[in-house]
Amino acid sequence: MENPHIKIDIEGDLYFDGNKLTHDKIIEFFKKLDYEKLDDSTYQLKWHQNNITQRINIVPEDTLFIVKDVVK
């Protein structure tokens, strides 16, 4: 059985268990979490809930970050 993870497609959309995450508050929650790079293709998000550290892997299709604007 595969470990639960969040997939990020090439457009930057988030998926969990094959379902696209569309609720703005859920997407914002995941964007604000700390992450750690595990290897060249996997990252891990971490947050604390009830004094327990929760973790979930993120698997980007291409890259985890997209530059949308540059300010001088």
How would you describe this protein?
- A hairpin with a 5-residue loop joins strand 1 and strand 2.
- The chain has one helix at residues 24-31; strands at residues 5-8, 14-16, 19-20, 34-39, 42-49, 52-60.
- The protein has 72 residues and is mainly β.
- It is built from 1 helix and 6 strands, in the order E-E-E-H-E-E-E.
- The radius of gyration is 13 Å and the shape is globular.
- It has a 6-stranded mixed β-sheet with strand order 3-2-1-6-5-4, with no helix packed on it.
What would you say about this model in short?
The protein is mainly β.
Report the portion of residues in β strands.
35-45%
Total helices: the number is 1
Which series of helices and strands comes N to C?
EEEHEEE
Portion of residues within helices: 10-25%
Structural class by sheet pairing and helices: mainly beta
Evaluate the radius of gyration. 13 Å
> What's the multimeric state?
single chain
Keywords:
72 residues; mainly beta; six-stranded mixed β-sheet; 11% helix; 44% strand
Outline the secondary-structure elements:
Elements: E1 5-8, E2 14-16, E3 19-20, H1 24-31, E4 34-39, E5 42-49, E6 52-60
Parallel strand pairs: 1-6
Antiparallel strand pairs: 1-2, 2-3, 4-5, 5-6
